[in-house]
Amino acid sequence: MKKKLWKWAIPAAVLTAGFGWAAVMPAAVESFMPRVETVRLTYTSFTPSVEARGVISETDGQWFATVAVKERDISVIAEGQSARISGAAFPSEAYAGTVYQIADSARQTSTVASVETVIDVIILIDDGDGLRSGYTAQAAISTDSERTVGVLPYSVICQDDQGEYVYVLEQGKAFRRYISTGDELPQGAEILSGVSLSDNVIMQPEKVSDGAYVLEVSA
To answer: Strands, E, within the chain: which ranges?
Structure first.
């Protein structure tokens, strides 16, 4: 009795020989391959800042915002840094200010989950017209000059014991690529290394594994 040939034997042999996967991949095999979309690095202007909450006050016609900076952030705060003040009472307007004074000692403040250590920072407001003492304030203190950064969505970034990584699409396969991230922006994470502008990053990392064939589809 003659042995029955497997119908995928020839395509598999061609793939192994490296003659290109797209030209020989049977439609039946393609139907089982994960379908994914890809995204590339996007570049945006970003000014590193520290967020802190506090209260508006006034002394002799000069307006201040006293905000509580978390202990982990205080090392990057310095007198003379610029700040933008916003608040619930003035949602459509932001006030400019300058870090005027940093408290010499820290204090503890209670939150819903725990007790935090904070340092009070006084911000001198340039023009407090329209403000009232006792208003709550949200300050964004700029800690560095504006720079352009490459960003990827948080949803494409995975993590294991070795660090953070993404899957990059290369010649029809998904390959794990370890990356370094920086600041967190509203639209995603700053990418410091590991991904270039030309890389196609897979948007559905949960569907793929390292070295697996995938099919790219349009968004």
So the answer is: 35-36, 38-39, 42-46, 49-59, 62-70, 82-86, 95-102, 107-110, 115-125, 136-142, 147-152, 158-160, 163-170, 173-178, 180-185, 188-193, 201-202, 215-216
